C-alpha cells in the first residue's frame, strides 16, 4: 500500500506555500508560488494544481499517494470552502474548494482561515495536544485568532468566528482597514506597532534611532532591533503594544476561559519583548477568578511551516 | 412507573426559588426561601432540602419521583459544583453539589452559573432549540452570559467561561465591584443605567423627573417609567446603554459568530428601549462580514421561571 500524504497550502497576500505532509506532521517537500503575480484567479488555481502535481512527481515520493488537500487562507470559511471579502489578497472572494475540486475531484479538500489552521496544527502536532480549551493569536500584518472550546474549533454559525483582531480595543480609536475604528489589530500587529512608534515620536521629545525612518521605511523588525539597543521609543512602543494585547487577552479569557493562549507569527518573533508585557498586563486586567491560571506561550511551531502543516492537519485530523 | 420530576433551583442574592419541573419544562409546583435570612450556609442548604421535601410531599405529586437536581447560581462552576468567589451572596464559596449530595445521595446533581442555566433553558425549551451557536446575555444587577458554540455550552478549562460582563468596555472607565475598571456591567446593567443617569444629570442642564431621586432611591424601573414619558435624560441613558451594549455585542460576534443573541433579565424588561439601540449600534459596529446576519432577540422565557427551568434543564438535557 502506498504511503498517504496530504497537501497543505498556506495562502498569503504575496506568497503561497505548498507542502506535502506525512501523517506525523513532517513536511516532505514544498514549493512556493507568488500569489500576487497571477492576473486571474483561474490562473492562480491552475498554478496551485501544477505545483502539487510537480511535487507529487518527485522521484523520492513515488511510493506516496495524495489523499487530501488542506488550506489555510485569510478570511477563508470552513463551512463554505470559500475565501470571503479578503482585504489582503488580489481577489476578494474565491470559491477555493470548488475550484480546486475541479482539478482533484476525488480528494477530500478542507479550507479554514490561517489562524484556525495554526490552532489545528497546535492541536494535532503542537503543545495543545492535550488541551480542550485554548486560543491561538497570530500577529503579523493583522491579528488573527483561532479559538478552541470543548476540544473543537469554534467556527460559529457562518464559519467566520475568531475575529479577535476586530474587537474594539480603544473606543473611537485608530481607523482600521475593515472600516471600523479602534480594532485591536490597529494597535497589536506589525503595522500597529509602527503606528504606536509614530504616535510616540509625535508626542515625545526623546531621542530615538527611529526618527530617521519614514513611515514607509519602518518595519517591526527595525523597531525590534532598536528596542534591543534600548531605544526608548521602541521600548515604549513594545510596552504599549503589550499592554493593549494583555488587556484584550483578559477579555478573551473572560469569554472562553482557555487554559493557554499561544502567540504566533511575525511580530511574535520579538518573543519576550512582546510576551512579557502582554503577560504582565493580562494578569493585571484578568478578573480575579482567572488570575494565575492562564499560560501565555509563544508557539513553537516554526513560522515558515505552521501554515502548511495546519492546512494538512485539517485533513489528517479526521484520520488520527 | 412513577413520573419523573427534576428540582430546579435558582439561587439569587436575596431570593432562592425552587421548583419541580417535568420533562416538558413545565413548573409543576414551586416555593421560595430568603437566601439572605440564613446565618449559616449549613442552615441554608438544610432549608433547600426541606423545601424540596415539602414540595415532593404535595398530594398532587404522589405519582412523581425526584430524579435529579439542577441549580443555577451566581459564580457557580459546572466542573466543581461549587459557588466560587460570589460577590452578591451571603457566602463567597459554597460546595453546593457536595452539601446537597449529603441530603440526596442517590440523585444526579448539576450546577452551573445563572446565565448558563438560562442558555440551557433556551436550548432545551426556548427559541434556541435548533441553534448550534448562540449567546444569552442576562441584564440585572450585573451582566451575565452563557455562550453556546458547536451546540455545547462553553465552560472553559476551569468551568468559569462566559464572563462577558467583565470585558473592558471602556479602558480606565468606571470602577467595578470585581476590582477592575471599565467592565461592561458597570455600564450595561440596572446599576450601570443608574450611573449613566447620574453622569448625565451632572453634565447636562436639562430638566428631568430624575433630578428628584437620590442615588439610593433611583431604580431602573423608575428610569424606564421616565423614558416612557419622554424624559430626555432617561431616553439618553437608554441610548448610551444600548450603544455600549451594541458595541460589545459586536465584539461577542467577532469571537464566536453566533446566529442569535438573546437578551434576558430585569433590565431586558425595558424591551425596545434597550433592544432597539443595541441592535442599531451592534450593526454599526459589526465587522462587515457579520453585518445583517445576527438576530438580537429578547428571550421569551418568563423572568420568574427561566432560572428554575434552566437549572432543571441541566439535568433533563441528559435524558431528552
Question: Largest interface, and how many residues on either side?
Answer: A-B, 46 and 47 residues
Q: Write down the oligomeric state.
A: homodimer
CATH architecture classification of the largest domain in chain A: 2-Layer Sandwich
When the domains of chain A are counted, the total is 2
Could you tell me the number of beta strands of chain A?
A: 12
The order of strands across the largest sheet of chain A is 3-2-1-4-7
Which CATH first-tier class of the largest domain in chain A would you pick? Alpha Beta
Low-confidence parts of chain A: none
CATH superfamily of the largest domain in chain A: ATPase, nucleotide binding domain
The global form of chain A is globular
Count of DSSP H/I helices of chain A: 8
Secondary structure category of chain A: alpha/beta
Amino acid at each position: 500500500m502506498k504511503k498517504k500524504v496530504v497537501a497543505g497550502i498556506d495562502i498569503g497576500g504575496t506568497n503561497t506555500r505548498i507542502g506535502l505532509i506525512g501523517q506525523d506532521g513532517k513536511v516532505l517537500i514544498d514549493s512556493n508560488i507568488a500569489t500576487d503575480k497571477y492576473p486571474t484567479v483561474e490562473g492562480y488555481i491552475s498554478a496551485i494544481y501544477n505545483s502539487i502535481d510537480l511535487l507529487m512527481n518527485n522521484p523520492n515520493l513515488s511510493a506516496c499517494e495524495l489523499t487530501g488537500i488542506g488550506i489555510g487562507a485569510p478570511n477563508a470559511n470552513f463551512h463554505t470552502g470559500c475565501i470571503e471579502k479578503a482585504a489582503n489578497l488580489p481577489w476578494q472572494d474565491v470559491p477555493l474548494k470548488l475550484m480546486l475540486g475541479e482539478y482533484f475531484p476525488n480528494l477530500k479538500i478542507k479550507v479554514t482561515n490561517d489562524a484556525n489552521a495554526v490552532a489545528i496544527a497546535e492541536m494535532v502536532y503542537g503543545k495543545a495536544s492535550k488541551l480542550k480549551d485554548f486560543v491561538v493569536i497570530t500577529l503579523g500584518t493583522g491579528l488573527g485568532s483561532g479559538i478552541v472550546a470543548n476540544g473543537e474549533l469554534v467556527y460559529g454559525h457562518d464559519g467566520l468566528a475568531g475575529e479577535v483582531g476586530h474587537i474594539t480595543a480603544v473606543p473611537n480609536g485608530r481607523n482600521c482597514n475593515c472600516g471600523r475604528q479602534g480594532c485591536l489589530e490597529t494597535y497589536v500587529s506589525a503595522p500597529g506597532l509602527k503606528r504606536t512608534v509614530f504616535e510616540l515620536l509625535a508626542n515625545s521629545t526623546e531621542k530615538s534611532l527611529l526618527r530617521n525612518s519614514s513611515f514607509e521605511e519602518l518595519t517591526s523588525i527595525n523597531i525590534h532591533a532598536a528596542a534591543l539597543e534600548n531605544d526608548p521609543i521602541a521600548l515604549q512602543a513594545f510596552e504599549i503594544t503589550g499592554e493593549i494585547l494583555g488587556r484584550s487577552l483578559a477579555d478573551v479569557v473572560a469569554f472562553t476561559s482557555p487554559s493557554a493562549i499561544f502567540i504566533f507569527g511575525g511580530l511574535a518573533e520579538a518573543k519576550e519583548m512582546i510576551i512579557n508585557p502582554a503577560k504582565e498586563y493580562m494578569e493585571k486586567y484578568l478578573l480575579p477568578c482567572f488570575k494565575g491560571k492562564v499560560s501565555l506561550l509563544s508557539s513553537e511551531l516554526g513560522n515558515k511551516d505552521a501554515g502548511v502543516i495546519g492546512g494538512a492537519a485539517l485533513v489528517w485530523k479526521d484520520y488520527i
